[in-house]
Structure formats: C-alpha cells, structure tokens
Amino acid sequence: MKIEKLHHVAIICSNYEVSKRFYTKVLGFEIQQEVFREERASYKLDLCLNGTYVIELFSFPNPPKRASFPEATGLRHIAFAVKNLEEWKVYLESNEVSCQEIRVDEFTGKRFFFFNDPDNLPIELYEI
C-alpha cells in the first residue's frame, strides 16, 4: 500500500472573513473556488498554493470548540491522495480500522471516505 501525496487540509474557522483575509492576504494563498452552502449557512473556500489545491476553509455558525466532532473550530481532517479507494478500505478494515462508506464529493465528483486515527483525528482518503 502506498500513499501518493497529501491532498488537502481542511480547517473550520471561527471567523470566516478574518480567516479568509489571513490565508489569502497574509499567507498568499489563491482562491480557487468559494461556495456558500445555504443549507448549512456555511462557506467553503478552496485555496491554492502555487496553483496546487491545498486548503479547504470552512465556516459554520457558532462552531463548537474542538472535541472530536467533524465540524468544530480548528483542523477538520487530514486528507491523503490514493489511487484505489476500494483496496485501501479493505486494507484498513483488515487491520481493524473502522471506515465510513465511500462517498462522492458533490462539487468535484471525486470519491472519498473517512476513518479515524487512534486519537480520533479524522483522516480522509481521496481517490486520484
């Protein structure tokens, strides 16, 4: 089994405009796409570094402090790019790692699934 590369880092911020300014104006990330998800009252900002997609910045109304919930302030998950999701899912489950079902990203059409590390850090495998 081989992880191909880091795909992206997702961050939930407590103040969207402040974080958007920090990542774009201060750190110099480029905006690839900004989507307002009305049903969640949430922004999703896709940020690039040197033309490479690197960060998803999310806003949610009144996010809780980080516990182990997927939509809390702070780091949301780590995503790794892989070539075959089914093989990875079988491999992880054969090593007693509980995996969520494979889903399709509504904006990109790409497939992915999540699992947790031993400390419950959410990890995503994203098919390339």
UniProtKB/TrEMBL annotation:
InterPro entries: Fosfomycin_Res_Enzymes, Glyas_Bleomycin-R_OHBP_Dase, Glyas_Fos-R_dOase_dom, VOC_core, YwkD-like_dom. It holds the Pfam family Glyoxalase. GO terms for molecular function: metal ion binding. Keywords: Metal-binding. The keyword Transmembrane helix does not apply. Residues 5-128 form the VOC domain. PANTHER family: FOSFOMYCIN RESISTANCE PROTEIN FOSX, LYASE, PUTATIVE-RELATED-RELATED. This is Glyoxylase I family protein.
